[in-house]
Specification:
Layout (H helix, E strand, L loop, with lengths): L2 H15 L4 H11 L3 H6 L2 H4 L2 H5 L4 E10 L5 E12 L5 E7 L5 H17 L6 E6 L8 H15 L8 E4 L6 H15 L19 H19 L8 E6 L2 H12 L3 E6 L3 E4 L6 H13 L7 H4 L4 E4 L10 E3 L9 H9 L4 E3 L8 H9 L3 E3 L1 H4 L2 H15 L5 H25 L6 H20 L3
Parallel strand pairs: 3-4, 3-5, 6-7, 6-10, 10-11, 11-12
Antiparallel strand pairs: 1-2, 2-4, 7-8, 8-9
The protein binds (2Z)-2-iminopentanedioic acid.
(2Z)-2-iminopentanedioic acid binds next to strand 3 and helix 16.
C-alpha cells in the first residue's frame, strides 16, 4: 500500500477508536503529517506497526480522589496517570491539576512527552497525569488533603525506576511537596520518585527556571543559525506562569525587549520593556501573591492592561506562546504576520492550532514546536534524577551549562533530521522525526511488549 494511503487509514482508525479525543488526534496528526518520508525509507516501521503501537499508551490508571475542604464538605475528583511509553526509560512527565483535565488532554500531553523526552537524548520514557482538580482558589490545607488522597492511590503505580511525575499547570513545588511527603510515608522510602522538588530536600537548582530558560536558549540558537541574535528584538509572551516568567527573564538577559504578557484576566502592553524592577514585581505578583496582571498598570502607569485580550495583536519580532494548548489560532497567527513578526517559538505544549501552524509556515516565519523548544524543563528533571542517584547537588552554573548544551543539541538534531528527510529548516518535521526514530528503534529492539 502507498504510504499516504497507509497513514490516512491509520488516522481514520485512530479517530474511530476514540472519537471524542480531539486534542489527542490533533497531536498525532501533526506528528504523522511529517513522517511520510521516514516511513517510505524505513518500511520496517510500517511492518512493525510502530504507529499503531506508539499511539497506544502502555497503561492508563484512572482513579477516584475523595477529599474534604476546610468546611468539612466532601469532594470527589478524578485522577489519571497515562504511562505512555517506556522504550527509552521510566515513564516521565508532569501532573496537570486543572478543571479541563480529562483522558483526551492527558493522552495528547503524554504523546507529546514521549517525543520531547526522546529529543532531550536523556534516558526518559514518556507519561503524563493529573486531575480535574483546580488548585486556584483552594487553601494550602485543601491542596494538601487533595494531594495526599491523590497519592494514596497513585503510589502503587509510580517509583524511581518506574514512573517519575513532576509539575505542569496547577502543580508546582507546593503540590510536589505534598505528594512526595505522602509517597514517602506510604513507601517508607526516600527516593527521587518526583522531580520539581524544593532544592533543600532533593530538588535541582534551576528546575523552576528550566523550561523558560530553555525556550529562550532555543530561540537564541535559531537566530544564531541565521546569523542573527536576540539583541534588541521585541518579544511578546502569553502565559504569566512559570514558563512565561522565566522565558521573559532569560530573553531579557540575552538582550531582547519583552513588551507583552498575558494571564487569565487579560494582557499587558508595556512599551518600556521588562527590566529588573518589573521582573521582580511580576515574580512576587505571580509566585508569591498569586495575583492578577490587572494590578500591573497601577504600579507601572506607562503600561496598559487590556481586560480579556490576548497578546498577539501587539507588534513584535518574535512571539512566545507559554500558556496552554490551542491558545494561538489562525486569526492570531495572521495578526502576528501582518504586524511583521518573524518567528514563533513555543513554550507551552501544542499552543498553535493546525491553522495557525499552516499560516506561520506559509508566511515563512521561523517556527519551533513545543516538544523541541520547551524540552528544557523535563531535561532538568532528568538532571535532578541524576543528582538524586549520585546523592549530590550541582551548582546553578553546572545545571545551566548542561541545560544550554541540551537545548543546543536538540536544535542541531532537529535541523539534521529535517535536512536528512528533505525538509531543511523545518523544526517541526525535525523534532518529530528525531523523536520518533529513537523511540521506534528502541521498541523494535525490545520486541512486542
Ligand atoms: O510538559 C512538560 O515537559 C512538563 N510538564 C515537565 C515534565 C517533567 O517531568 O519535568
Amino acid at each position: 500500500m502507498d504510504t499516504n494511503a497507509y497513514t490516512a487509514q491509520f488516522l481514520e482508525k485512530l479517530i474511530q477508536k476514540d472519537p471524542a479525543q480531539r486534542v489527542f488526534h490533533q497531536a498525532v496528526q501533526e506528528v504523522v503529517s511529517t513522517l511520510t518520508p521516514v516511513l517510505q525509507q524505513n518500511p520496517k516501521y510500517i511492518k512493525e506497526r510502530i504507529l499503531e503501537r506508539i499511539t497506544e499508551p502502555e497503561r492508563t490508571i484512572i482513579f477516584r480522589v475523595p477529599w474534604q475542604d476546610d468546611k468539612g464538605e466532601i469532594h470527589v475528583n478524578r485522577g489519571f496517570r497515562v504511562q505512555y511509553n517506556s522504550a527509552l526509560g521510566p515513564y516521565k512527565g508532569g501532573m496537570r491539576f486543572h478543571a479541563t483535565v480529562n483522558q483526551d488532554v492527558l493522552k495528547f500531553l503524554g504523546f507529546e512527552q514521549v517525543f520531547k523526552n526522546s529529543l532531550t537524548t536523556l534516558p526518559l520514557g514518556g507519561g503524563k497525569g493529573g486531575s480535574d482538580f483546580d488548585t486556584r482558589g483552594k487553601t494550602d490545607s485543601e491542596v494538601m488533603r487533595f494531594c495526599h488522597s491523590f497519592i494514596n492511590e497513585l503510589y502503587h503505580h509510580i517509583g524511581y525506576h518506574t514512573d517519575i511525575p513532576a509539575g505542569d499547570l496547577g502543580c508546582g513545588a507546593r503540590e510536589i511537596g505534598y505528594m512526595f511527603g505522602q509517597y514517602k510515608k506510604l513507601t517508607n522510602d526516600f527516593t527521587g520518585a518526583f522531580t520539581g522538588k524544593k532544592p533543600n530536600w532533593g530538588g535541582s537548582l534551576l528546575r523552576p527556571e528550566a523550561t523558560g530558560y530553555g525556550v529562550a536558549y532555543f530561540a537564541q540558537e535559531m537566530l544564531r543559525h541565521k546569523g542573527d541574535s536576540l539583541e534588541g528584538k521585541t518579544c511578546i509572551i502569553s502565559g504569566a506562569g512559570n514558563v512565561g516568567i522565566y522565558t521573559m527573564e532569560k530573553l531579557t538577559q540575552l538582550g531582547a525587549k519583552v513588551v507583552g504578557l498575558m494571564d487569565y484576566d487579560g494582557s499587558i502592553y508595556d512599551e518600556h520593556g521588562i527590566d529588573e524592577e518589573r521582573l521582580a514585581y511580576l515574580k512576587d505578583l505571580v509566585f508569591v501573591r498569586r495575583g492578577s496582571l490587572k494590578e500591573y498598570d497601577k504600579k507601572f502607569p506607562g503600561a496598559h492592561f487590556r481586560p480579556g485580550k490576548k497578546t498577539w495583536d501587539i507588534p513584535c519580532d518574535y512571539a512566545f506562546p507559554t500558556a496552554c494548548e490551542n491558545e494561538l489560532d489562525g486569526q492570531d497567527a495572521q495578526l502576528l504576520i501582518n504586524n511583521g513578526c518573524k518567528g514563533v517559538c513555543e513554550g507551552s505544549n501544542m499552543p498553535c492550532t493546525p491553522e495557525a501552524i499552516e499560516r506561520i509556515k506559509a508566511a515563512k516565519l521561523l517556527y519551533s514546536p513545543g516538544k523541541a523548544s520547551n524540552a528544557g524543563g523535563v531535561a532538568v528533571s532528568g538532571l535532578e534524577m541524576t543528582q538524586n542517584s549520585m546523592r549530590v547537588y550541582w551548582t546553578r552554573e553546572e545545571v545551566e551549562k548542561y541545560l544550554q548544551r541540551i537545548m543546543n543539541s536538540i536544535h542541531q538534531n532537529c535541523l539534521e533530521a529535517a535536512a536528512m528527510y528533505g525538509m531543511p529548516g523545518d523544526y517541526m518535521a525535525g523534532a518529530n522525526i528525531f523523536g520518533f526514530k529513537k523511540v521506534a528503534d528502541a521498541m523494535i529492539d525490545q520486541g512486542l511488549v
